[in-house]
Amino acid sequence: MTRRLELWLFILQRGSAMVLAPLVLAHLVTIVIAIRGGLSADEILSRTQGSVGWMLFYGMFVLAAAIHAPIGVRTVVREMTAWRGRSLDVAALLFGVVLLWLGFHAVGAVT
Fold first, then answer.
1. Are 106 and 59 in contact (CB under 8 A)?
2. Mean pLDDT score of the chain, rounded to an integer?
3. Residue 18, domain extent
4. Are 43 and 99 in contact (CB under 8 A)?
């Protein structure tokens, strides 16, 4: 069972990285364009609020990050400490759920 779990976590983390890479790039390019254009936070929010496109973009960003980050943190904790087993898996899962909840809350606030 452990080998199967590790395989799925490997696949999920690589898949989420493939989703995150272009989203992070687009996000950074958008920030640079907005800042160079002299947009204020209020002006940026006025453009994102009510936008289904931005909601979908950042919703996908949050979902991918909430999958990717906990798997990576779990891997680092396993490599750097003696923590193993079901408690680590549950902690990583809870971390992902918190990221998902906070992220979707943030998406709702800006779109």
1. no
2. 96
3. 2-110
4. no
